[in-house]
Amino acid sequence: MSKFKKKGDGGTPAISTASLPDIVFMLLFFFMVVTVMRDTSLKVQNILPFADQVEKLDKKNLIMYIYAGKPSPRYQETYGTEARIQLNDKYASVNEVQQFIKEERQSKREELRDKLTTALKVDKETNMGLVSDIKQELRKVEALKINYTTKEGEATLNLE
Amino acid sequence: MAKRSAPEVNAGSMADIAFLLLIFFLVTTTIETDSGITRKLPPIDDEQEDPPPLKERNIFIVLVNASGELFVEDERMEFQDLRQSAIDFLDNGGGQGDEACDYCQGAKDPKSSDNPVKAVISLQNDRKTEYGRYIAVQNELVAAYNELRDREANRLYNTDFTDMEAAFNDPEYQGDKDKLKERIGVIKELFPQKLSEAEPKKRN
User: Which of A50, A65, A159 to substitute to test the interface with B, most B CBs within 10 Å?
Assistant: First the structure.
């Protein structure tokens, strides 16, 4: 019976690489999904100070970012060089911080609300006055967990 | 003769294209984990009850003034010496009787703190102080606490306190988390981080 006769010519068949693109695409999608693109564009100068006694901030979705520093060079013509607060994508004044925190809280699920941390990304040349004002506002709205975001390095680097 | 099959479209280069995209995403996206000094702000008390009186010797006043100079207990100090002097203060253990501290290794100076549990570091700054300096000072003070906590953790459990905390915060940690939490609690009780950040004052 020649029905099941092998029709090949006897050589070993080439290993199919057809599934390779699928694997690579899977990796590609994985990276596309897990990486978070920065959704805020910085409008302030943001050179973070150094510290070495740091804790890592995991759980990105439970962090509220407050930026502060003097406006970046291209905005300095309009806004001057006085240090400012940036919330989301725009400059804000100190009394808008409370509203911002409340809105951020609203957008999270209820059981996660008290786990929110506020990350202060403040330029190292900023005066403490502004930082204290922010801290005072955070206390008023009871967002007590804060994190001074820093770069990792010897603290003496700040003194130069 | 077998019939000629239609030629297959060569998909070999698809992998190359996908790799190119993959590498592009790998390079351009930075998985940035933010890290920093975590602190807790004191809540605002509505009814201003008087805080329990603190003895002068139990407070360690660190002041960073507008030009970034460091004053500890009203005396000028170099930045490099801050950590050690904070450790000396916290670890002094000069108390007697109830307030004695049996794990302190400090100088037991009656003019310095009684017990780490009672010792408070008060960090003060001017409105014009530069943020970078403030963070540097705060970093040193946290370092002082961590150093002492590490020492105690090594004495009691043969491990670093900072390692224990890192393990505790690691979601993939395999060991017994409750035990770890308890141990961290014990160390924190020995050296509680009483670092008060006062609201800035105008100083002349």
Answer: A159
B36/A119 CB distance under 8 A: yes
Per-residue pLDDT reduced to its tens digit, B69-100: 888 888 888 888 888 888 888 888 777 777 77
**Are A149 and B34 in contact (CB < 8 Å)?**
yes
Select the residue from A22, A127, A147, A160 to test the B interface by mutation, using most B Cβ atoms within 10 A. Answer: A127
Sign of the alpha-carbon dihedral angle for B90, B94, B95, B99: positive
Number of domains in chain A: 1
ipTM of the complex: 0.72
pTM of the predicted protein model: 0.75
Q: For residue range A93-121, what is the model confidence (pLDDT) as tens digits? A: 888 888 888 888 888 888 888 888 888 88
Residue B91 structure tokens: 């670890």
Q: With CB atoms and an 8 Å threshold, state whether A49 touches B135.
A: yes
Q: Closest residue of B to A48, CA-based?
A: B132
**Domain annotation covers residue A73:** yes
Q: Tell me whether residues A148 and B135 touch, CB distance under 8 A.
A: yes
Residue B98 lies in a domain: yes
Give me the domain span that covers residue B191: 59-197
User: For the segment B17-69, what is each residue's pLDDT rounded down to a tens digit?
Assistant: 878 888 887 777 766 667 888 888 877 776 666 666 777 778 888 888 888 78
In a domain, A129, yes or no: yes
Residue B34 contacts A where some CB pair is shorter than 8 Å: yes
Residues of B in contact with A149 (CB under 8 A): 34-36
In angstroms, what CA-CA distances link B165 with A91, B3, B39? 36, 70, 15
- Domain hosting residue A72, numbered range: 50-155
Rounded CA-CA distance B97/B95 in Å is 7
CB contact burial A102-129 (16+ within 10 A = b; e otherwise): eebbeeeeeeeeeebbbbbbbbbebbbb
Residue A38 lies in a domain: no
Report the CATH number at residue A74. 3.30.420.270
